[in-house]
Write a structure and sequence with these properties.
Radius of gyration of chain B: 21 Å
Strand order of the largest sheet of chain B: 1-2-3
Number of helices of chain A: 5
Structural class of chain B: alpha+beta
Order of helices and strands of chain B: EEEHHHHHEEHHHHHHEEEHHHHH
Low-confidence stretches of chain A: none
Shape of chain B: globular
Helix content of chain B: 40-55%
Largest interface: A-B, 42 and 44 residues
Helix content of chain A: 40-55%
Strand order of the largest sheet of chain A: 2-1-3-5-7
CATH topology of chain B: Cytochrome-c3 Hydrogenase, chain B
Mean pLDDT of chain A: 87
Shape of chain A: globular
Oligomer: heterodimer
Number of domains of chain A: 1
Number of helices of chain B: 16
Strand content of chain B: 5-15%
């Protein structure tokens, strides 16, 4: 009994810390780099996304938030799926840029299979080509609140599974 | 070579050290790189085919999205090619504005590179600093064109927006600021032992190899090969302005950093001269939608090296064929001699030192870099990879 209570307290503390410091990963799934450099600009002093406790990580296994740019190509499709599967639960996927939402300017290109939500489930869309850093930050903040809800739900489901 | 210590390490397409998707198969003996296989094609979208299905004016916007970093030089070279086909001369003011935007792009691209290079060797402070200073140029670009990344300034027959007198004044003061920052970065890259320990003597590409593998751009200039198109084959009005071509002979990563940074000092010089020389007048001329039959080529010096456009018209409003050759395609092959015999830990900075831009490169059919045989790519083959 005591052990389970300690476990509960521990996960509660860890979750609270996780909300304060989510890790983010950027994956370039066949974009033009325009969104990529704007996402990088978000990390730099002028926009500074780190003030929300967000750290940019290159490893999907360590990340909570996935930022995807670009309209997926045939060669990239499986890699994107693989990276999504490698991320721990709960996870939030944010699509940045018009081409990831609706193919955008790449409409009609033969090697582009289209919107990212065809390949992996997406939670938040940040439109524009490319979006301004302010818009990307707004999207990430919205993603954070969503991720908080997902975390609560995930913990509840886990507990129900136990009993 | 010891059998036990030999192994193969796959890197990419997603890897913390690589900003863009590429796949490197690195053969190692202990920590030393024996051989590298480069596999590209993740960014292939089929833009050249799509260009044939759109009109010349619509193509301009798609060409801008080939690469988000060097979007202006792509449209500039494309517009030059189409203007040759149409046989029109654009107003002089438009030429100067095109040059100013192209040099702005060089500044923001090289500043970005300085940040990435510092990031790859684990020096995050310089990364943050250079990206902070890069924002100075981004602000100017936004004021001039209304957008931070895709400016859409060039159009067939001229440019779309003007530079006002107050704007010109603002550009001058910002250029002074950037100059002082650049002197600081040159000092950091030459004297700071934290950086020189990682960059001096790493990733050497000898002058002979640079010519043999036909390297271009700052990579070749850092190996002592003079190849600046703005000097060798001046386009627009580059023959009217006074600037130096920067070459350096130590051929290592440090040399590439110095070439890029010193080049920016020349860029600010060009911008100041352009603002001074710019005459009053029209921004663009009206051009017909239908382009007469014929073919034209056009070359330009992108931040990463020479960019090449071939356009062929069959007398309609859509191009018959447009072929694009981008600098990274030429610069990817010298990676093999640069990486052989180096330490694994130096791989990210060496790959970064060519300033690769894979969204530019991957419009072409897949090339086997080892055998040089090009393959036809079908869907099943792509899925297998």
């Amino acid at each position: 009994m005591l052990r389970s209570q300690i476990y509960k307290l521990k996960t509660k503390a860890i979750n609270k810390a996780r909300i304060k410091s989510p890790w983010m990963m950027h994956f370039d799934a066949t974009s033009c780099n325009g969104c990529g450099i704007e996402i990088l600009a978000c990390l730099t002093p002028k926009y500074d996304i780190e003030r929300f406790g967000i750290v940019e990580k290159g490893n999907p296994r360590h990340s909570d938030i996935l930022l995807v740019t670009g309209a997926v190509s045939h060669k990239m499709k499986d890699k994107l799926k693989l990276i999504y599967d490698q991320m721990p639960e709960p996870k939030v996927v944010i699509v940045v840029g018009a081409c990831g939402i609706s193919k955008g300017i790449y409409q009609g290109c033969y090697n582009v299979i289209g919107p990212i939500d065809k390949v992996i489930p997406v939670d938040i869309y940040v439109p524009a080509c490319p979006p301004r850093p302010q818009a990307i930050i707004d999207g990430v903040i919205k993603g954070l609140t969503l991720w908080e809800d997902k975390l609560d739900k995930y913990e509840k489901d886990k507990e129900e599974e136990k009993y | 070579m010891n059998e036990d210590t030999c192994y193969t390490l796959p890197l990419g397409p997603q890897h913390p050290a690589l900003v863009e998707p590429e796949y490197l198969k690195v053969h190692l003996d202990g920590e030393t790189i024996v051989d590298v296989e480069i596999n590209l094609g993740f960014m292939h979208r089929g833009i050249e085919k799509a260009l044939q299905q759109r009109t010349y004016q619509q193509d301009r916007f798609l060409i801008e999205k080939i690469c988000g970093i060097c979007s202006s030089i792509h449209t500039l070279t494309y517009c030059n090619a189409i203007e040759k086909l149409l046989d029109v001369e654009i107003p002089e003011r438009a030429k100067y504005i095109r040059m100013i935007i192209a040099e702005f792009e060089r500044i923001h691209s090289h500043m970005l590179w300085v940040g990435i290079a510092a990031y790859e060797i684990g020096f995050d402070t310089v990364f943050q600093m250079s990206w902070r200073d890069r924002e100075l140029v981004m602000e100017l670009l936004e004021d001039l064109s209304g957008n931070r990344v895709s400016y859409s300034m060039n159009t067939i027959g001229g440019v779309r927006r003007d530079i006002s007198r107050t704007m010109a004044e603002k550009i001058r003061t910002t250029m002074d600021k950037i100059d002082s920052k650049l002197h600081h970065y040159i000092d950091v890259f030459v004297n700071d032992s934290t950086i020189t320990k990682r960059t001096k003597g790493t990733g050497i590409l000898t002058k002979k190899d640079a010519i043999r593998y036909s390297a271009i751009g700052p990579l070749a200039r850092a190996s002592g090969v003079s190849c600046d198109l703005r000097k060798k084959a001046p386009y627009l009005l580059y023959d009217q302005v006074d600037f130096k071509e920067i070459t350096h002979s130590t051929s290592d990563v440090e040399s590439r950093a110095i070439v890029r940074l010193k080049e920016l000092l020349e860029s600010t010089k060009i911008i100041r001269q352009c603002l001074h020389l710019m005459p009053k007048g029209e921004l663009s001329i009206k051009v017909p939608d239908i382009v007469p039959e014929g073919e034209a080529i056009s070359r330009g010096e992108a931040p990463r090296g020479e960019i090449f456009y071939y356009a062929r018209s069959d007398g309609t409003d859509k191009p018959y064929r447009i072929k694009i050759r981008t600098p990274t395609l030429a610069n990817i092959h010298p990676l093999q001699p640069m990486l052989k015999g180096q330490q694994l830990a130096d791989l990210p900075i060496i790959v970064a030192s060519i300033d690769p831009c894979f969204s530019c490169t991957d419009r072409v059919t897949l090339l086997d870099t080892r055998t040089g045989i090009s393959k036809t790519v079908d869907e099943a083959y792509l899925k297998k990879l």
